[in-house]
Amino acid sequence: MTDRYAVIGNPISHSKSPLIHTAFAQQTAQDIAYTALEGPLDGFAGAVYAFRDAGGRGMNVTAPFKLQAFDLATDRLERAELAGATNALKFEGDRILADNFDGVGLVNDLQRNLGVALAGKRVLLLGAGGAVRGALLPFLAEQPAELVIANRTAEKATALAAAFSRRGRITGCGLGDLAGERFDVVLNATSASLKAELPAVPASVFTGAVLAYELVYGKGLTPFLRLAQNAGVPLLADGVGMLVEQAAEAFVWWRGVRPDTGPVIARMTVPLV
Ligand code: ATR
């Protein structure tokens, strides 16, 4: 029998998850149907229960429901617990298991696809919202020499760094505090690029950097990537690989089979011009 999965969000028409999971299912000969569901803004829980009761096996969760999904879960895996949000649910009888694969998807993209190991590196993460929070545990697990979170609102970055300080070398600061600092890897996890804005980061952070990474995908050469390019960073990437890698982690969790992400990333990549 065909097992049902879905991504739920609002809006949802832009979601690439059905395309990615359908490609994974074809590749691995898994009998699944994966659809996109627009969750009502005032009825998220009801939509999840209805999907499960109709035979659904699992769901991806996207904006604005990642926190509500966390609250709904009966069992939260550590990554979801520390991220304070979930992007994947699995239904097992009465239990709703929650995990968060965004951070591990990003780390896999950096290390496996782009060939940039984080161990021993000075890493700068711009932003202090949900995307950064989800990335911190998987990043620190790779043991960078230093992980710096810099945010427009400095207090959010320092609070986040303090909350994770037990888990590795991490500091938080404001964007203005980065003057004169240099990093090996610089990632933009702010939502500035969605508005074609540039986080007010000094170009000097890119001096000697091997990679600049934009978590937003499909926006081409964003102001952040353009700044990095002008500063001479040799490798630029957007978040298409992160998107496909987090989907692969969910697929393994649900189906016990690992898909090959390479062809799917290649199909979805939009040139950085
Ligand atoms: P997400 O869950 O996608 O991370 P979020 O929680 O709304 O989204 O967080 C958005 C992040 O982008 C925040 O760190 C925000 O900075 P503030 O905390 O100061 O609001 C950051 N951000 C948004 N627009 C920005 C801009 N134009 N320049 C710099 N940072 C920006």
Number of helices: 10
**H/E element sequence:** EHEHEHEHEEHEHEHEEEHEHH
Strand content: 15-25%
Read across the widest sheet, the strand sequence of neighbours is: 2-1-3-5-6-4
Structural class of the secondary elements? Answer: alpha/beta
Describe the largest sheet. Answer: 6 strands, mixed
Bound molecules: 2'-monophosphoadenosine-5'-diphosphate
CATH superfamily of the largest domain: NAD(P)-binding Rossmann-like Domain
Shape: globular
Rounded mean pLDDT is 96
Counted up, domains total: 2
Multimerization state: single chain
Which residues form runs of ≥5 with pLDDT under 50? none
How many strands appear in the DSSP assignment?
A: 12
The name of the CATH topology of the largest domain is Rossmann fold
Describe how the helices and strands are arranged.
Layout: E1 3-9, H1 17-28, E2 32-38, H2 44-53, E3 56-61, H3 66-72, E4 75-76, H4 78-83, E5 88-92, E6 95-99, H5 102-113, E7 122-126, H6 130-141, E8 146-151, H7 154-163, E9 170-174, E10 185-188, E11 211-214, H8 223-230, E12 236-238, H9 240-255, H10 261-268
Parallel strand pairs: 1-2, 1-3, 4-6, 7-8, 7-10, 8-9, 10-11, 11-12
Antiparallel strand pairs: 3-5, 5-6
Helix pairs in contact: 1-9, 5-6, 5-9, 9-10
2'-monophosphoadenosine-5'-diphosphate binds near residues 153, 190 and 199.
Quick description:
This protein is an alpha/beta fold.
Question: What can you tell me about this protein's structure?
Answer:
With 273 residues, the protein is an alpha/beta fold. The protein has two domains: 3-100 and 241-268, 3-Layer(aba) Sandwich (Rossmann fold); 103-237, NAD(P)-binding Rossmann-like Domain (Rossmann fold). The chain is 37% helix and 22% strand. The chain is built from ten helices and twelve strands. It has helices spanning 17-28, 44-53, 66-72, 78-83, 102-113, 130-141, 154-163, 223-230, 240-255, 261-268, and strands spanning 3-9, 32-38, 56-61, 75-76, 88-92, 95-99, 122-126, 146-151, 170-174, 185-188, 211-214, 236-238. The strands form two sheets. A six-stranded mixed sheet has the order 2-1-3-5-6-4, sandwiched between helices. Strands 9-8-7-10-11-12 form a six-stranded parallel sheet, with helices on both faces. Strand 5 and strand 6 form a beta hairpin. Helix 5 (102-113) packs across helix 6 (130-141), helix 5 (102-113) crosses helix 9 (240-255) and helix 9 (240-255) packs antiparallel against helix 10 (261-268). It is globular and about 60 Å long. 48% of the residues are buried. The mean pLDDT is 96. 2'-monophosphoadenosine-5'-diphosphate binds at residues 127-131, 151-153, 156, 190-192, 197, 199.
